């Protein structure tokens, strides 16, 4: 599995104002197109997959992220070529910009757990007149679903409920081997330094621990996800916040999370 240029990426050579190429093989490319403000809001990763002439955005971001993400997309391909937006779950830091995309292109497909389609409508503001919403949802059931790409590749949507959302999907790109993991693997450093890859494993687990103990629902939910991921060829895990896990950091992370008491198991250890 080709993992250049992600393998060679170093934080001190990354400009977060750029679109960062993470993978390229033939007509299949993966970019980081997130934002870094250094402000009080949680920093978010947005990713773009270009496959042939089509674009797929994962975790589009909050309402005010749209101009930044849109600008980066325009540097790489026509925004008319974006066919799908993927949302790991229903949170505003992921979804709130989608009405800007659907106003741009009504045909765009919104890939999200079937649990959230009724809730996603509440991000929309344009049917105060009573006009029905006309959103193009691809509803991911608990069994998951696959979106076929050119040349036999797929974007496999895997259901990983309660990590943290009850309706939560992970997306596995079978061409790059990248797993887009939503809030699983999120890290929050106390300083405002931009980091896209891990410099120091111990510092990174420290930056992940509190978030996972509070947000991930239970160790059983983590074990269910790890069981599902074990047979998959995963070359990197790309969360919605924090740093990308590369190569051996993938299993290091799933093992670390598997042993960390989280959620109900962390808060009520005497009831286990
Ligand atoms: Fe979330
Ligand atoms: Fe998030």
Give a verbal description of the structure:
The radius of gyration is 18 Å and the shape is globular. Helix 6 (219-229) packs antiparallel against helix 7. The mean pLDDT is 94. It has a single domain (6-271), classed as Ribonuclease Z/Hydroxyacylglutathione hydrolase-like (Metallo-beta-lactamase, Chain A, 4-Layer Sandwich). The longest helix is centred in the last third of the chain and has 15 residues, at 201-215. The protein starts with 19 loop residues before the first strand and ends in a 5-residue tail after the last helix. It has helices at residues 66-76, 92-95, 98-104, 117-120, 201-215, 219-229, 249-259, 263-267, and strands spanning 20-25, 28-32, 47-51, 54-58, 82-86, 109-113, 136-140, 145-148, 154-159, 169-173, 178-182, 236-239, 245-246. The strands form 2 sheets. A 7-stranded mixed β-sheet has the order 1-2-3-4-5-6-7, with no helix packed on it. Helix 4 links the parallel strand 6 (109-113) and strand 7 (136-140). With 272 residues, the protein is of the alpha/beta class. Helices cover 25% and strands 23% of the residues. The structure holds fe (ii) ion (FE2) (2 copies). The site of one fe (ii) ion has 4 residues, from loops.
